[in-house]
Design a protein that fits this description.
With 505 residues, the protein is an alpha/beta fold. The strands form 5 sheets. The protein has a 13-stranded mixed beta sheet with strand order 2-1-10-9-11-12-13-14-15-22-21-17-16, with helices on both faces. Strands 6-5-3-4-7-8-18 form a 7-stranded mixed beta sheet.
């Protein structure tokens, strides 16, 4: 669908009126036992947007679990030209209060009973857990008169990623940046009104909120869950006849495992999309068996950058690459001094596009969390471009370990070790060493009995220079994950320091 079909106005919610008029009773959104058709979705978004427009200036903080009401409120914020500040209800109360103090919202809508009026720093609308749209109270008196179209450059969303200071790092996105992402992705995959898109993860994770909003913008029916469970996700895909699925690798692993055990074939799935962490190669043949008609594609990006690179299974992506630059994205490699590096040289990955974020809203200061060179932005990933323009990542610059004068990116070792069938996850840490500066220590979570130290050393020596081979290995069975399905490296380090790992012999 071309933007001109709904009048050429570039608002994020503009297509809702078009879809509501063209097919009012077709299903737009299914979440738990709530189903909204296009006419209803458009009407409730307009109603809530008028309430939000009547509030004092400021963003609207949402500290809520997944529900249809959350999606409606985010869309209503966009329609009213306000920003939705999407907080995680699982945060400890002191962290939530610190974030709210920085954001100073006009209103907090929360399901958390400990969020008090004065303590939250904003007026509060308290709602029940497992919120239904019908139970969402009025937010304010309705704004009189017609709502103006919002400025596409206006901020509409504050999402959060983990920060190095302990406070979640809030990043601010404009409507224009997500509209550019929508257009680039539709050019790649042509998602439209014939599609049924499943986004079964938490809406506090920007991947899943993005999937919902991009799909509704394109006119697709959206399937979501109150909370992720592999059995519920599989039922959603199977019974909803999903054609597109967004997921992080840990979700994909659990869904595929459940489908294999139940003997289900997801034969309607045409697109299998993954992001948030590196896709394990072992999942590829399993995906082909469970969803034989699905094209697999993996995104590399960051919360601040949106899409950076794309690896499609139907394109010749070199081994070890995260793909080619996404449509409309320029990738440049620079050294720490800002000098542009030639093909094949390792440095900091910089990105220039209309998709990038506006600024940090709270947490790490911008000069600490990212680097800027003109309109190019780097979030600290190290990598290089090959002769054909494909992007290769080495790791995070902040995680680089210097041992015996050599720069080692632990991610390169971790990816290699995780290729073993008897390793579920791996982490490489730098430990102080009087002679080397730092020495490498490997930590694994084993599948079954898991590998021995000798197995791991031999495996690494067969693929890596000796300087990159950890000689000491520990096992940690209670592996810590972040909310986005990535290894929590700080928690692994604390487990080693606290003696909660077992050294392999």
């Amino acid at each position: 669908m071309n933007v001109n079909e709904w009048g050429g106005r570039p608002g994020l919610t503009t297509p809702l009126a078009f879809h509501a008029a063209a097919r009012p009773r077709e299903t737009a959104l299914v979440l738990a036992d709530e189903t909204l058709d296009w006419a209803t979705l458009h009407a409730v978004v307009e109603t809530r947007a008028r309430e939000i427009a009547a509030l004092p200036p400021g963003g609207i903080a949402l500290r809520l679990a997944n529900s249809a009401a959350v999606i409606v409120l985010v869309l209503a914020c966009a329609r009213a030209g306000r920003e939705a500040q999407v907080l995680d209800p699982a945060w400890p109360t002191p962290i939530a209060r610190a974030v709210l103090a920085h954001l100073a919202p006009a209103l907090l809508v929360t399901e958390c009973p400990e969020d008090g009026e004065g303590e939250a720093g904003a007026p509060v609308r308290r709602v029940p857990r497992d919120l239904r749209l019908a139970d969402l109270p009025p937010l304010a008196r309705t704004h009189p008169g017609p709502l103006p179209e919002p400025d596409p450059a206006s901020a509409f969303y504050v999402g959060f990623t983990s920060g190095s200071t302990g406070m979640p790092k809030g990043y601010r996105r404009s409507q224009r940046s997500w509209l550019a992402s929508f257009a680039a992705e539709r050019a790649e995959f042509a998602v439209g009104s014939a599609d049924v898109v499943a986004a079964p993860g938490p809406l506090t994770h920007s991947l899943f909120l993005y999937a919902v909003l991009a799909s509704l913008h394109a006119g697709a029916c959206v399937l979501a869950l109150p909370r992720f469970r592999p059995d519920h996700a599989l039922r959603l895909l199977d019974e909803g006849r999903a054609t597109v699925l967004y997921g992080v690798p840990t979700h994909w692993d659990l869904i595929l495992d459940r489908a294999e055990r139940e003997g289900l074939c997801l034969d309607t799935l045409r697109l299998a999309l993954a992001s948030g962490a590196k896709w394990p190669a072992a999942l590829t043949p399993r995906l082909a068996r469970v969803a034989p008609s699905a094209l697999f594609a993996e995104f590399y990006g960051a919360s601040e950058l949106s899409f950076v690179a794309l690896a499609r299974a139907d394109e010749p992506v070199p081994e070890g690459s995260v793909g080619r630059p996404f449509a409309g994205v320029e990738v440049v490699i620079r050294d720490r001094a800002g000098r542009r590096l030639p093909t094949g040289r390792r440095g900091l990955v910089h990105v220039a596009s209309d998709l990038v974020f506006t600024e940090y809203a709270c947490g790490d200061a911008a000069d600490e969390a990212c680097l800027r060179h003109g309109r190019e932005v780097s979030v600290g990933d190290a990598g290089f471009l090959d002769a054909n323009g494909f992007v290769h990542l080495c790791g995070r610059w902040k995680r680089m370990i210097v041992t015996s004068g050599k720069n080692v990116f632990p991610e390169e070792i971790e990816r290699l070790v995780e290729r073993r069938d008897d390793v579920a996850a791996a982490c490489v840490l730098g430990r102080p060493d009087a002679r080397r500066g730092e020495r490498l220590l490997g930590v694994v979570s084993g599948a079954g009995e898991g590998p021995s130290r000798a197995d791991l050393v031999a495996w690494c020596r067969a693929h890596l220079p000796l300087a990159l081979v950890p000689q000491r290995w520990h096992r940690l069975d209670d592996w810590p994950w972040t909310g986005s399905g990535k290894t929590d490296f700080a928690a692994v380090a604390r487990a080693v320091e606290g003696g909660r790992t077992r050294e392999l012999s």
